Amino acid sequence: MNKAYRFRIFPNSEQKAKIENTFNCVRFIFNKMLSDRLAYYNQTGKRLRNTPAQYKKEFPWLKEVDSLALANAQMHLMAAYERFFKNPAGNLPKFKTKRRSKKTYTTNCVNGNIIIRCGEIRLPKIGFVRIKLHRVIPKDFRLKAVTVIRDARGLYYASVLFEYEQTVPETVPERVIGLEYSDTGLYTDSNGGQMDYPPYIRQTLETLQREKRKLLHMKKGSRNRKKQRIKTMKLREKFCNQRTDFLHKHSRQIANAYDCVCMKDPAEGISYDFGWAIFRFFLKYKLSEEGKRFIRTDNVMLSEMLYSSQAV
Questions:
Q1: 77-91: per-residue pLDDT in tens?
Q2: Per residue in 274-308, pLDDT tens?
Q3: How far apart (Å, rounded) are the C-alpha atoms in residues 160 and 148?
Q4: 3-state class of 159 per DSSP?
Q5: How far apart are CA 36 and CA 17, in angstroms?
Q6: Which string of DSSP letters, residue by residue, matches 275-309?
Q7: Dist CA 96 CA 34 (whole Å)
């Protein structure tokens, strides 16, 4: 099984410059490979098999950054094409913009090139960077990859992916609950209860919406609009962090209390809060880690879901 932990990192000025250079090179190689693929397909009608190594002779500055970061950019492009071929009604892969506030790149652990020790993490081509290890990493966890992130506020994070072996015992579902999406809150359960977000999350959302409306009425390119944009991004990140923290804690409570959870999504074509999808994802993987059952549906009554799960 795989599990990722996100830690705050504190690079110095020289390391920040190297990380930003890696961001730019990853974005460049993704856009260059996508552009060449589109041009080749328009000319020949065939798919181009290009790799980052083919561009290093023409652009020698690509050798200054981690080669695995460039290779992962190629993998992301290939994955985007595979999603498009599976669903041709969707959109083709899009070019990455330079003005995007959040920047990331991923590198893999090969021959011990990434090490975590004594409050530091060694990143390829970057060196040892100070890291805030707010949780203990089990000794049997094997490091697989690291994703370096710079958020809208300019803070740096490292999402570290680990691989571990775990035998999950099968649990007989004795305690079962059904959850159904609610327009007035987060959900209603089969016991007649209703769950909504805490007031502080609703208050942050209202403040964010008000600041967004202010941003829309400001003149593009002005200094006030730039300040308001930064303020809006900080509020958005605060809201996302508050919502994620609440959903993590609440999904853990449900996973500990019940052996089987049945979730009924809204009917097709009805829009719903994105927090519902996040809550569903958290609940699903927390139940699977403990050998418990998760049932999802969108076309049957909640009573039928509970009856079928208890029968199983």
A1: 999 888 888 887 777
A2: 888 899 999 998 998 888 889 887 655 555 555 45
A3: 9
A4: strand
A5: 28
A6: HHHHHHHHHHHHHHHTT-EEEEESSS-HHHHHHHH
A7: 10
